[in-house]
C-alpha cells in the first residue's frame, strides 16, 4: 500500500515537473519573441489611426489649422501624417528585417513627437485640440500622454531587442 | 523552400493584421452613439449648444450636399449626452468653428 502511494506521489511530482517545464519553456519562447508583439502592435496602431485620419480628412485638416504655429502647414500635416503612418504600418509587417528595424526606429520617433505634442498641449495650450483618430481621440489628455509614453518605451525596448536579432 | 514558406507566413500575418486594423477603424467610425439635431434657422446659432436638441425635430429639406448653410444632424460620441458636454465637444473638437461643425454634420439644409 505504502509502495503504491509512493509510486503515485512520484508520478504526480514528475507530472507537475513536466507541466512546469512546459510552461517555463513556452514563457521563454514567448519572451524571446515579445518584441514582435511591439512591432505588430505599432503596425496595428498606425494603420488604425492612419486610416481613421484619411477617412475623416476634412475634419482633420480643419482641426490642424487651429494648432498654434503648425496651423499654417495644416494641409501638409493633414496628408503627411496619415500617409506616413500607413507606410510605416506596411513596412513594419514586411518580412525584411533591416527595413523593419528602420520602420521601428521611425515609428518610435514619430510616437515621441506625438508624445511631445501632447505634453506641450497639456503644459501651455488653453484650447487643446486632438485629431488622433477613432477610440484614441476619446481618451483623456493625461491617459493619452501615458499611452503614448508607454509605446515610446516599448518601441525603444524592441529596438534594443531587435539589434542582434538574426532569425 | 523554408525561406519562401517563412516569408509567405510573415506576409499573410502582416496583411491580416493590417486588414484587422482597417476593419476596426471603419467600425469605430460607424459607432456614433448620439445624434444631435440643429433646431434654428440662423447660421450664427450653429456654435450655440442651446440650439441643438437630441430629439429629432423632423425638419424638412435635409440633404447630404455640402452647400446648404445649416447643419441638420451631427453625430457625436456616446459621452456627449448633455448641453454641457456638447459645449465642451464644440470647443475641443471643432474649436467653436461653425464651418467645421457644418462640415462634420451628416446632413444640411437651407433656412
TrEMBL record, chain A:
Q: Which GO terms describe its cellular component?
A: membrane
Q: How does the protein associate with the membrane?
A: Multi-pass membrane protein
Q: Which domain of life is it from?
A: Bacteria
Keyword terms: Membrane, Transmembrane, Transmembrane helix
Extract one GO BP annotation from the record.
methylamine metabolic process
Among InterPro entries, the record links this protein to:
Methylamine_util_MauE
Enumerate the subcellular locations listed in this protein's record, separating them with semicolons.
Answer: Membrane
Q: Which residues cross the membrane?
A: 36-55, 76-96, 102-124, 145-162
Please state the protein's primary subcellular location.
membrane
All copies of domain Methylamine utilisation protein MauE, residue ranges: 36-159
Descriptive protein name? Methylamine utilisation protein MauE domain-containing protein
UniProt source species: Sphingobacterium olei
In the record, what lineage is assigned to the organism producing the protein?
Bacteria, Pseudomonadati, Bacteroidota, Sphingobacteriia, Sphingobacteriales
TrEMBL record, chain B:
Give the signal peptide range: 1-24
Q: Which UniProt keywords apply?
A: Signal
Full protein name: Secreted protein
Organism this protein belongs to = Sphingobacterium olei
Amino acid at each position: 500500500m505504502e509502495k503504491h502511494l509512493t509510486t503515485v506521489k512520484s508520478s504526480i511530482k514528475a507530472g507537475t515537473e513536466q507541466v512546469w517545464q512546459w510552461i517555463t519553456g513556452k514563457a521563454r519562447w514567448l519572451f524571446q519573441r515579445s518584441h514582435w508583439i511591439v512591432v505588430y502592435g505599432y503596425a496595428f496602431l498606425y494603420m488604425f489611426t492612419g486610416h481613421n485620419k484619411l477617412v475623416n480628412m476634412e475634419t482633420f485638416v480643419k482641426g490642424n489649422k487651429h494648432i498654434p504655429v503648425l496651423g499654417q502647414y495644416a494641409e501638409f500635416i493633414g496628408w503627411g501624417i496619415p500617409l506616413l503612418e500607413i507606410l510605416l504600418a506596411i513596412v513594419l509587417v514586411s518580412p525584411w528585417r533591416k527595413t523593419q528595424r528602420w520602420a521601428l526606429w521611425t515609428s518610435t520617433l514619430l510616437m515621441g513627437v506625438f508624445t511631445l505634442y501632447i505634453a506641450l498641449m497639456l503644459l501651455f495650450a488653453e484650447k487643446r485640440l486632438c485629431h488622433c483618430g477613432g477610440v484614441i481621440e476619446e481618451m483623456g489628455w493625461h491617459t493619452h500622454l501615458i499611452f503614448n509614453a508607454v509605446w515610446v518605451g516599448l518601441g525603444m525596448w524592441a529596438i534594443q531587442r531587435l539589434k542582434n536579432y538574426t532569425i | 523552400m523554408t525561406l519562401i514558406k517563412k516569408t509567405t507566413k510573415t506576409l499573410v500575418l502582416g496583411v491580416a493584421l493590417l486588414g484587422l486594423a482597417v476593419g476596426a477603424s471603419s467600425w469605430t467610425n460607424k459607432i456614433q452613439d448620439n445624434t444631435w439635431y440643429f433646431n434654428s434657422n440662423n447660421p450664427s446659432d450653429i456654435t450655440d449648444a442651446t440650439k441643438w436638441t437630441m430629439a429629432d425635430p423632423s425638419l424638412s429639406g435635409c440633404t447630404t450636399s455640402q452647400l446648404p448653410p445649416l447643419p441638420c444632424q451631427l453625430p457625436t460620441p456616446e459621452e456627449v449626452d448633455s448641453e454641457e458636454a456638447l459645449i465642451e465637444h464644440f470647443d475641443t473638437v471643432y474649436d467653436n468653428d461653425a464651418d467645421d461643425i457644418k462640415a462634420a454634420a451628416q446632413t444640411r439644409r437651407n433656412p
